[in-house]
Amino acid sequence: MSQNYLWKQPKLQDILSLxxxxxxxxxxxxxPLDMKLEPISELVKVDNHLAHKMxxxxxxxxxxxxxxxxxxxxxxxxxIQSKVLMLIFISLSSLEAPVRALGxxxxxxxxxxxxxxxxxxxxxxxxxxxxxxxxxxxxxxxxPNIITLFLARTVDIxxxxxxxxxxxLYAFILRKPCLDIAQVPEFYNLxxxxxxxxxxxxxxxxxxxxDGLRSSLDFHICEKRYIFSTLLLHYxxxxxxxxxxVSILQTVNSAGKKFESSAxxxxxxxxxxxxxxxxxxxxxxxxxxxxxxCEIMKNLEVNxxxxxxxxVILWSLIAKIKVKFLDIGxxxxxxxxxxxxxxxxxxxxxxxxxxxxxxxxxVEDLYKLWKSLVEKLESKQEMNTEEGKDLxxxxxxxxxxxxxxxxxxxxxxxxxxxxxxxxxxKQIKYFNNILELILxxxxxxxxxxKELPLWxxxxxxxxxxxxxxxxxxxxxxVKNLTSIIRLFEKDFSVKEEFKxxxxxxxxxxxxxxxxxxxxxxxxxxxxxxxxxxxxx
Length: 536
What we know:
The protein has about 525 residues and is an all-alpha fold. It is built from 29 helices and no strands.
C-alpha cells in the first residue's frame, strides 16, 4: 500500500525550506502595493519577467496565518531563519486594508508563539515587535514602504551576527521602545556613522532609500527630514564614492518616476541645476552614473516645469555620450526625452519656445553620435551574421536612428543671403552628410513622407543661392537625390488613401526641376528629369 497520503500534513520546516532568499528579496522590491487580497486576474499588475521571480502574497499570507494559528507547533528560530517574516512586514505597506490586516494578524500570532518559546535571541525579537506595536496608534494603519523595508532588512541582519550593521541596528532597537514611522529610522546616525565601517553603513542606508521609495508617503517622510537635500549635497562632496553617487542617483530616480508631485517638488528645489552641474563634472567614462542620469531625465520629462532648462541639460548630457561605453538602451532613452522636450516647446504658446532651433554645436554632437551608432550597427550586423545572435540591439539602434532624424529636423541651416561664402559652403556640405544619414536608414515611418519632405522644402526655400539644389544635382549629392526619388516612388505605389503623402516629395522634385530650368544648373541624374516629366 502506498505510503503517500493526500492528507499527510507537511512539517513547518519542510514548507519554510521552499522559500528562496532571492525570490523573497524580489518580492520586497517589486510586489504591487495596490494588489488586492482576492486572486482576481484583472488586477494583477506584475511584469511578466518578474512574475516568476516573486512570491504571491495573496497565497503566502493565508498560509502563514494557518502555520501560526493558535495551537500549532512553531519553531520560532526556523521561522526567523527562513526570512518569511520579511514578507509579513512588507505586507503592512499595502494600499489594501485586508492585506494589511492579515499581515498584522500574522505578526500577532508570531508574537504569541515567540513569548512561549525559549531561545537565546528571543529578547531582541520581542523588542523589535514591541517597538513596531507601540508606534501604531490607529486600527490597521498603512506603514510607509521605506519603514517596512527597513524592518524586513533588519530581520535579515539579525540572523547574521557577523554583519557590519548588526551592532548599530541591535542598539537602535534596544533603545527605541517606540518606532517613529513618520521618519526614516536611524538616517542621520547611519549616514554620518562614526564606526570604522561607516561607508558600509551609509551604503546600506542609501540602498534602503533607493529601493524603499515607492509611494508619495515615502517621499514625504524623506522630504520632511531634508533627506534629499542631504543626499544632493553629499553627491558633490569629495567624501562620496562612485558607488554612493550611483545610489543617490537611484534614489532621486525612484522619487521622480513614481509620482508627479515629488518630481515637481524636487525640480522646485533646483534639481535641474544640480543635474546640470553633475553632468558637467562627470567624465564620459563614468558610464553607470551617466546611465542613471539618462533614466532620471527620461522620468522627469513629463513633470519638468522648465522645458528650456531641461533641454539644455539634455544637450550637455549628449555631449558626454560615448557609444563605446554607454548601452544603446540608455542612449535611446535620452534621445526620446530630448525629442519629446523639443516637441513640447515647439507646440507651446510661448513664442520663445515655439521657435526653438538646434545650434551648430547641437548638430555637431548629434552627427558624431549618429556616426558612432552607424559604425556600431555595422559591427553588430557582421557579428549576427557570423554567430547567429539575436537582433534586439540592432532593432534598438535602428529605432534610435529614427529618433535622431526627428530631432535633426529642428535644425535650420544658415543659408541666407548675408551668410559668408565659407560658412555657406560648409553648411551645404554638412547638410548633405546629415541628409545622407537620415535617408540611409529610412524605415516604414510616416516621418519620411510628411515631416522630412516638409523640412527639406523649407530649407530649400530659405536657400536663395540654390546651393542645396546644386548639391543634389551634382555627383556629390546624386546619392541623396536617388534616395528621395525612391521615397517618392514608394509613396506613389501605396494604397489610394495614402497617396497624398507623395505630394510632399512631388513638390520638392518639381521645385528642383523649375529651379533647374530657370538657372544654369546642370543635372547628373537622368532619372530625375524623367521623373519630373512624368509627374507634371
